[in-house]
Amino acid sequence: MAYDYAFVHLVYTIPLAGVLTIILKPLLHRFDVLKTLALILIAFFSTLPWDSYLIRNSIWTYPPDAIIGPRLFAIPIEELFFFVIQTYITALFYILLNKSVLHAQFLTNHEVSSPAARRLRTCGQLLLSAAILIGGILVSKGGEGTYLGLILIWACPFLLLTWTQSGYFLLKLPSICIALPIGLPTIYLWLVDELALGRGTWAIESGTKLGWCLWGNLEIEEAVFFLVTNTMVVFGLVAFDRSMAVFDTFPEMFPEASRRVSPKAFIKAALADPAKYDMERVRGIREAVSTLRRKSRSFYLASAVFPGALRIDLVLLYSFCRVADDLVDDADSKAEALKWIQKLTGYLDRAYSGPGKQSRVTADVDSYAEKNFPLPARSALKLLPTRLLPSGPLYELLEGFRMDLAFTDAKFPIETEADIQLYASRVASTVGELCLRLAFHYSATRLSKDDEARLIQAATTMGYALQYVNIARDIQVDAEMGRVYLPTDWLSHENLTPRDILKGPKQPKAEVLRQKLLDLAFQEYGKSRSTMDLLPDEVRGPLIVAVESYMEIGRVLREGSGVPHKTKKGRATVPRSRRLWVAWKNLRTS
Asked: What is the CATH number of domain 282-589?
């Protein structure tokens, strides 16, 4: 009995797997766990007969003094564990690097793919088919090309299958999300293999290998093996994610499915004809993601920890809010802005129209959007998930926009603390309630009416807090637009008028009022934060992250006497590393 091979795991594979597990554990969804387990089982049972054949035919050998002893089908227990740990490590790298990606936006099909994508997919199919043919020739000839041939005829059919199924989707994904999960584990395992081959922990027998080394003792066959096996794992995960994205993006294709995907529904999604994808919806999701990445980075980052279908609808909701706000704010005149509010009201009137055939209502809504709104705004309106949302908060949001337009040279409508609370209720509490309604819909846990009511009230109060932080951050930006949201009676206590803020938004007294508003924000935050513990398990962490990511802006504003250490266009910003830490910390403790 010896421990050389076990030593490889104890020193090189298990510690890395442990670190990745600690980092990712708070971020993992149920689907992440299931797809990783599925890939491990597939990898284990598909590698078992292949590896057994290599060992029985003396292509791979293990010195008796390097292994503990127990075997299954001639495969040492340490090697069996390698099937599991390599798949696990690569899967975690993939999940980590894809966590922020909303996969729904990358769905596509042959009809809408570019000519370049079509050529790449075809070339990939031809290359993999050629590799299978070459592998067969090498194995049939025997001799020095045997091991390389066995790698090719074992791995390339799986790669061909997953590439054929998910090639267009894979080509759409950010290249870093594919290249790094393949490349990083591959290079790491090359180094481990180099050390193991040098120590004689395992060996490739002469006469079945080409005798070429990538460097040192690393045989070219071993380098190819780790590259193709990690590629197999990543391609398999991509296929899983594509199937889940289909299920989450096109619920109308799976009317029989519950909120949680069943194996039957998942297989149906995997086999769904891409020609039947609603590509207008996919394009709308892409536009929504682009809007949020430009306009609401905190929410976009926080949205990464929500389950797929809920994340899609939250992104679409936030996109509608941002687009509607921009239509009003970017208008050339107050009269034009009021017209946009009227048009948005008309859109909601039609979207929430009375009983009738849904197809007729949808057609009327789409027609109204196309006639009354610019092209960049249409998808945000059409894809607003009105079937899951009450209309009241959306109408209240428009009333908040009207308050924005009440500012004139002679009038500043935010006169008292009650006024700023009313404004926050309309533009922020409404959005908080809408987010909660979506979370209630997608949660598998049914809450009591009392708990739902308490959470809705907490969302209202938290809306005050988040909007106060927003106002505190944007004093300078708002002043440039001729708006002062600091209550006039607060200004009076500092011997200021709204016009003084317009002239000098950075003056010391404005900073004093910023801190006063932040104090009020954190007071409201404190009232509602503990109520969030009532949220269902699957949405509690993500919703807390969404709140804490925004409140972190307030914490930045409070640091160093409230002077933001980093600003962008007059706004305090939170470094990405700090936002990631906030998300991880709150998920870990939620």
From this structure: 1.10.600.10
